[in-house]
Each structure stands twice: as structure tokens, then as C-alpha cells.
Amino acid sequence: MTGSEATTSEVGASQSLTIAIDGPAASGKSTIGGLLAERLGYLYLDTGAMYRAVTWVALERGLDIDDEEALSALARSLEIEITRPGVKDGRQYTVLADGEDVTWEIRRPDVDRYVSPVSACAGVRRALTGQQCRIAQRGRVLMVGRDIGTVVIPDADLKIYLDASPEVRARRRYLQLVERGKEADYERILSNVVRRDRIDSQREVAPLKAAEDAIVVDTDNLSISEVLDVVEQLIAETITDAAKKTGA
Ligand code: DC
After folding, report:
1. Where are the domains of the chain?
2. CA of 139 to the centre of ligand 1 (A)
């Protein structure tokens, strides 16, 4: 155990912080966020899973992906729950959409393909952002996504933006799939990453970008465990500062 690990979990337990981690597809934010939330004993919310759940249900129901009204109505009515894993099959958490377990379904290639256009829909964002804000207000939460530091928790105690080149991110995603025994085509993954970056960062509502007060971590030349160390150190510093302010 490193020094910062002890500090993070000990002091983190006594503080009610909000931590925002944003970044493009496959920047490592889910892996890092999940591990650190667990160490802190904080709620972990991967907001991408919520956009994916809406996309999956829209595809299942055969909705027109260009029909903003239908997508918005779906996002308002769909009950999305993200809970502790429960099942031991490599999942980080369980995602329920109207009670149905869609944890693995939302990782399907067709969801990958349509989730960016669906999440560019203003009504979908309004519905999901509202739910995310309510969760953030409870504190003790680590949320990951694209607009957490800019829109969902603009007053977060710590904002981190994890970045990496499209090639490095595509390679990470490729290796993840190979490790899980899945078929993977590096070129196809790369072009999907580039396409999603373009849609996510050029959309009108809540585009992907680092908040002005976010700390940008370039992870191109770092392993996951090195990124973990950097982020954990930042969290430890935030916790220490917060403890000084509150006298805890
Ligand atoms: O992190 P991910 O790849 O699971 O996210 C899937 C999509 O959801 C991503 O292409 C953009 C969208 N998204 C978003 O617009 N805002 C968020 N806070 C999280 C995800």
C-alpha cells in the first residue's frame, strides 16, 4: 500500500466530497473511477452507462434515432438503476433498464455506434443530467463522463480530465476486448473512437471539453497503474485541503 492510498481511504471516509472525472472514449476513466470510488467508499456513477441504456432501449424498440422527441420521452420515462455488481462475471456494476439487466447488452457494437448521436439530443441530456445532479447533491460521489465538471457538478471539489491520443485509446480498447476473448479489429475501433470524439466534442449541448478548473492528465505514456497513482495523489491532496478547511 502506498502512502497516498492510506491517506485517501482514511481521510476520504470522513469527508463528503464530489469528484468529477471526464474524458473521451476509452481514456481509462471508468477503470480509474471505479477503483478509486471503491477505495474511498464513495458512490461510483459511470454516466456513460445511462446514455448507453437509453440507446439500447431505443434500438430494441426500433425508435428512429433522429426522432428527438421520441428519444427524449424515452429518457424521461425509463427507469435506469446502476447498482453494485451482484454477479461475478467481470462487471464493474449492474445496469438495470426498467428492471431488466442490460449490463453487457449496452456494450454491444450497435450501442457503441448510436450512443453518441443519442447523447447529442438535448431532451435526453436534460432528463439524464437532472438525475445525475440529484445524485451528486448527496455528496460522497465520484462521477465519470463527458460533462461532469462542466455541467453536472460545476462546483465539484476536484475535477480531472483524462486525455490520450485516439491511437492509444483504440489500442487500450482493442487489448481489453482481446483479454475478454472477444473479436477485435484495431482499425475499426480507431475509426469508431475518432467518430465518437468528433460527435461528442462538436455537439451543441454540453460538448466534451475540460472544465476551466479541471486538472488535465495526459495518459498517453502512462500505464493504468501510473494514472491511478497520479489521480489518487490529486484526490489525497483535495481531501487534505478539505479536512484543513473543515478542521476534520
Ligand atoms: O463513456 P462511454 O463511452 O460509455 O459513453 C458513451 C457515450 O455517452 C459517449 O459517446 C458520449 C455519451 N456521454 C455523454 O454525452 N455524457 C456523459 N456524461 C457520459 C457519456
Report:
1. 20-229
2. 22
